[in-house]
Amino acid sequence: MNLLEMSYEEVVDVVKQMGLEKYRADQLLDWVYKKRVFTFEGMTNLSKEHRALFREKFTVKLPRLIEKRVSKIDKTTKFLYELEDGNTIESVLLFHEGYATACISTQVGCPIKCAFCATGQSGYVRNLTVAEIVGQVLAVENDSGRNIRNVVYMGMGEPFLNYDNVVKSIKILIHPKMKDMGVRRITVSTVGIPDKITRFADEGLDVRLAISLHAASNEKRDTIVPINRKYSIEEVLQAAKIYQEKTDRRITIEYILIKEFNDFDEDARRLAKLLKDLKAYVNLIPVNATSASFERPSHWKMVRFKEILLENGIEAELRQEKGADIEAACGQLRLRRMQAKS
């Protein structure tokens, strides 16, 4: 069984069934999650007998790196990984002042099919397993030599359509005997599945929540985020309000700015009105040129949009673009590779 698929309690149970003390499980997990040693031969504080027993019972399988791109602009690094079934996924390492963030995927492709997103253009295949989600964090650390302390579930796929595996992976990453990440250093980004948002509020995980809104009216959002026809903006924001009431966490609103579509002054005012009862921070993102249909607004137009939000009491910032020279946006590298093979 793949160790990365297992919770702490599951690992302990198996180790006890093997007739070993609980602390042997702690030693094993420390080697994998803290020391990044993925072969049992390298676990030198375990006896040869114990290493042989663990080798018979467990495997540690990371996704296989098949392509890596490093930005000359800001060192943003994109990883294209191959899974055991031959499917590929992307992870991205983002550098900030004093720390690095891993952006990880939760699905192979994405069924949401947002009009501006390269991942949606490549189609949906399946959910990732817990081990494939957790494995990305360890693989990025292993392939970059960095200790990752911040993770965003913001890569390929919609996390809340793979709810159980995402929640279990978070519990593994934050467990003190495993990756031991701070829960407030984890962000889950969703397009907005109201029942899953409210369910997530009851998990007691207290992670950051980001909602990809991208429009201030249902009429506009319907055209670029098809799932809005099922879950309206009002339903999504009501669920976000419930999440905030239960967790006391500020909600991040992701808003892709598209030229002459959702970048008008009236859009900014409408967005501010929608968010007035929510403690929210708006992340304004210039659209990536994944389709000839969309262009980013001029810089002054984006600044104007931000200023209107600020004037109406809504915190907002223009996201600093990272990795533009390496196709760092979700799904771009995988899509290019798929097109090259077709």
Percentage of residues in helical conformation: 25-40%
Largest sheet: 10 strands, mixed
What string gives the helices and strands in order? Answer: HHHEEEEEHEHEHEHEHHEHEHEH
Number of helices: 12
What integer value in Å does the Rg equal?
A: 21 Å
Question: In total, how many beta strands?
Answer: 12
Q: Uncertain spans, ≥5 residues at pLDDT below 50?
A: none
Based on the structure given, which CATH architecture of the largest domain is correct? Alpha-Beta Barrel
Adjacency order of strands in the biggest sheet: 1-2-3-4-7-8-9-10-11-12
The termini sit apart by 35 Å
| Shape type | elongated
Topology-level CATH name of the largest domain:
TIM Barrel
For CATH, the homologous superfamily of the largest domain is named as Aldolase class I
- The structural class is alpha/beta
Structure in a nutshell:
The chain is an alpha/beta fold. It has helices at about 10-15, 20-35, 50-55, 120, 130-145, 165-175, 195-200, 220-225, 235-245, 265-275, 300-310, 330-340, and strands spanning about 65-70, 75-80, 90-95, 100-105, 105-110, 125, 150-155, 185-190, 210, 250-255, 280-285, 315-320. The protein has two domains: about 5-55, Orthogonal Bundle (DNA polymerase, domain 1), CATH 1.10.150.530; about 65-340, Aldolase class I (TIM Barrel, Alpha-Beta Barrel), CATH 3.20.20.70.
